[in-house]
Amino acid sequence: MTFKIRRLNGLIIFLFLSISVYAQVSLPHVFSDHMVLQREKPIPVWGWATPGANLTVSFAGQKVSTVAGEDGKWMVHFTKIYAGGPYEMKVYEGENKEESIIFKDVLVGDVWFASGQSNMEWQVQQADGADLEIPNAFNPQIRLFNVPHNISIDPLDNTMKTEWKVCDSTSVKEASAVAYYFAKKLQHTTNIPIGILQSSWGGTPVEAWTSREMLLTEPLMRNTVLQNDTVTEDHFVKDSLDLVKFWDIVYNPKNGLDTIIPNSVFNDDEWRTVTLPGNVSEWESEFYEGMIWLRKTIELDVQSAGKELTLNLGHPEMNYSLYFNGVEICKTQWNANLTHDYKIPAGLVQKGKNTIALRVAALWGGGGINPPADEIYLTNGADKINLTGEWKYKKDLEPAIPLIHNFQYYPSYLYNAMINPVVPYGLAGFIWYQGEANENMAYDYRKLLPLMINDWRIRWQQGFLPFLWVQLPNYMEKDSEPADGKWAVMRESQTKTLQLPNTGMACIIELGETNNIHPTNKTDVGNRLAAVAQKLVYNMDVQASGPVMKDYTVEGNEIRIRFTEIAKGLTTSDNEAVTGFAVAGEDQKFYWADAKIVGEEIVVSAKEVENPVAVRYAWANNPDCNLVNSAGLPALPFRTDNWPVLTQK
Question: What pLDDT is recorded for position 13?
Answer without folding.
Answer: 43
